[in-house]
Amino acid sequence: MIKVQREDFDVGAELSALCAGRGEVGAVASFIGLVRDVAGPGELSAMTLEHYPGMTEKQLGELEAEALARWPLDRVLIIHRHGRLLPGDRIVLCAATSSHREAAFEACAFLMDWLKTKAPFWKLEEVGGQSSWVAAKDTDEAAAAKWTKNE
Amino acid sequence: MKVLYFAWLRDRVGVAEEIVEPPIEVTTVGELIAWLAQRSARHGEAFADPAIVRCAINQNYAKADESFSRTDEIAFFPPVTGG
């Protein structure tokens, strides 16, 4: 399930709903990304997440399908916020459910690594009254690349 | 045809989208970038380093050598930074 929204989300309620009535599920792995209060040398006052409506949902949907194809999962949940966020705010929730923990843990890590390089979001940081776009990290590319299948 | 811009590409070009009519010999993403870069000083600045510009055709990632049609939705944006 994919949700792209401005509003915050209730982590407990979302994870409970993901597992409700799913008797075979014995494991839920989740990741929550938060806005940090540091940005390079300065103190971050806010961060605005811009995205490409339509393509975001399409890319996240493809990520979900890929995870379901690679691991024996029951369900996948990705909630990603956009708009102006403050330090401490939740940005993203990613969760995978399965019978056992290995698939859930691995799928959750995979989803975040690929999301970082495929989902069309861009972060604009506000530091000391100045706004600047966050540059992509090579380490994110490397993290995503390790999940690429050897053809 | 419609071209969309996001994040700092939009800031530099100055508009979020525009209608353009590239000449018929412009058929690939790379050729479109080169043609757009000559439209104005702002476009030139936005596309100064094509290596850090990402493209999507109909919301799928596309490389510089990929062809597009005049009815496709083309978007240009920086490397993504979500999560």
Give a verbal description of the structure.
Chain A is an alpha+beta fold and 151 residues long. In chain A, 31% of the residues are buried. In chain A, helix 2 (55-70) runs antiparallel to helix 3 and helix 3 crosses helix 4 (138-145). Chain A has one domain: Molybdopterin biosynthesis MoaE subunit (Aldehyde Oxidoreductase, domain 3, Alpha-Beta Complex). Chain A has 4 helices and 9 strands; from the N terminus they run βαβββαβββαββα. In chain A, the strands form 2 sheets. In chain A, strands 3, 4, 6, 8 and 9 form a 5-stranded antiparallel beta sheet that branches. Chain A has a 4-stranded mixed beta sheet with strand order 1-5-7-2, with helices on both faces. Chain B has one domain: Roll (Ubiquitin-like (UB roll)). Chain B has helices spanning 7-13, 29-37, 41-46, and strands at 2-5, 17-19, 54-57, 60-62, 74-77. The model of chain B has no long low-confidence stretch (mean pLDDT 97). Chain B is an alpha+beta fold. The longest helix of chain B is centred in the middle third of the chain and has 9 residues, at 29-37. Chain B has a 5-stranded mixed beta sheet with strand order 2-1-5-3-4. Chains A and B meet through strand 4, helix 2, helix 3 and strand 8 of A and helix 1 of B.
Quick rundown:
The complex is a heterodimer of chains A (151) and B (83). Chain A is α+β, with helices and mostly antiparallel strands. Chain A is built from 4 helices and 9 strands; from the N terminus they run βαβββαβββαββα.
Topology:
The complex is a heterodimer of chains A (151) and B (83).
Chain A: E1 2-5, H1 11-19, E2 27-34, E3 38-39, E4 42-51, H2 55-70, E5 73-81, E6 83-85, E7 90-98, H3 101-118, E8 121-127, E9 130-133, H4 138-145
Parallel strand pairs in A: 1-5
Antiparallel strand pairs in A: 2-7, 3-4, 4-6, 4-8, 5-7, 8-9
Helix pairs in contact in A: 2-3, 3-4
Chain B: E1 2-5, H1 7-13, E2 17-19, H2 29-37, H3 41-46, E3 54-57, E4 60-62, E5 74-77
Parallel strand pairs in B: 1-5
Antiparallel strand pairs in B: 1-2, 3-4, 3-5
